[in-house]
């Protein structure tokens, strides 16, 4: 299917926070109750519409485990958007945000839009991080913020589409160069047939990494 723009995303955050589940909910509208540890990087894709324009989101879901950190770092370059995820029921995942953010800022293009996500909002009774704390962290670091549930799908569409909307606004405002692929954006109509086949299937796929 043709698109006006392709935006590349990366999903980052500690292991077990629900990165792969968020992607699966967004691409396939289903929930995976078992922790299927991501090894290296997986990817998914979905088409969305903003301002009557078809936009393809190409989403790289990274492994949260420390041992994969150097692989993850190689995926920041060329990402237009990042979803930085923590688990509202595990405070340490919130405390590690600063390290994630440092990596994201150091290894990405300066134009990358970052959405902070407090996931597992369905587990409110086990909450260790208040909504207001997430909001405050986002405000201090210039991020967009949302709490989501990959289980109930609450705010999942909004998180992925909201990030795309921000990127789209930057394009409209002329603050991001769409001809520079390092910014994670591709023009669709102008570059027909250049999209590698292995990236076209919808839904998360295992990628043998690096
Ligand atoms: N209740 C609830 N459980 C969730 C939610 N999102 C993910 N989980 C569960 O949390 C566990 C980890 O989810 P994953 O999506 O595999 O975590 P991940 O961040 O991809 O982890 P790594 O691949 O190791 O980095 C699984 O058991 C999921 O079912 C959510 O929104 N609510
Ligand atoms: Mg995963």
Automatic annotation (TrEMBL):
Keywords: ER-Golgi transport, Golgi apparatus, GTP-binding, Lipoprotein, Membrane, Nucleotide-binding, Prenylation, Protein transport, Transport
Principal location class: membrane
Location within or outside the cell: Endomembrane system; Golgi apparatus
The keyword Lipoprotein belongs to this UniProt entry's keyword annotation: yes
One GO CC term on file: Golgi apparatus
MF-aspect GO terms: GTP binding; GTPase activity
The keyword Ribosomal protein belongs to this UniProt entry's keyword annotation: no
Pfam families reported in the protein's UniProt record: Ras (PF00071)
Alphabetical list of InterPro entries matching this protein: P-loop_NTPase (IPR027417), Rab_GTPases_membrane_traffic (IPR050209), Small_GTP-bd (IPR005225), Small_GTPase (IPR001806)
Membrane-protein topology: Lipid-anchor
An annotated GO BP: vesicle-mediated transport
Region (Disordered): 190-210
SMART domains noted in UniProt: RAB, RAN, RAS, RHO
Family membership: Belongs to the small GTPase superfamily. Rab family.
Name of this protein: Ras-related protein Rab-2
């Amino acid at each position: 299917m043709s698109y006006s723009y392709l935006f590349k995303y990366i999903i980052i955050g500690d292991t077990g926070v629900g990165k792969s589940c968020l992607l699966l909910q967004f691409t396939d509208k289903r929930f995976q109750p078992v922790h299927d540890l991501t090894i290296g990087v997986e990817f998914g894709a979905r088409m969305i519409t903003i301002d009557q324009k078809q936009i393809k989101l190409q989403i790289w879901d990274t492994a949260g485990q420390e041992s994969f950190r150097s692989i993850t770092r190689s995926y920041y370059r060329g990402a237009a958007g990042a979803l930085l995820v923590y688990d509202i029921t595990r405070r340490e995942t919130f405390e590690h945000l600063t390290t994630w953010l440092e990596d994201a800022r150091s290894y990405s293009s300066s134009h990358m839009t970052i959405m902070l996500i407090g996931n597992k909002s369905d587990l409110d009774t086990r909450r260790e991080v208040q909504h207001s704390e997430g909001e405050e962290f986002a405000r201090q670091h210039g991020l967009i913020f949302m709490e989501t549930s990959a289980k109930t799908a609450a705010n999942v569409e909004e998180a992925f589409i909201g990030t795309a909307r921000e990127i789209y606004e930057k394009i409209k405002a002329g603050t991001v160069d769409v001809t520079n692929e390092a910014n994670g954006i591709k023009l669709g109509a102008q570059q027909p047939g250049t999209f590698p086949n292995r990236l076209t299937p919808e839904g998360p796929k295992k990628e043998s990494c690096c």
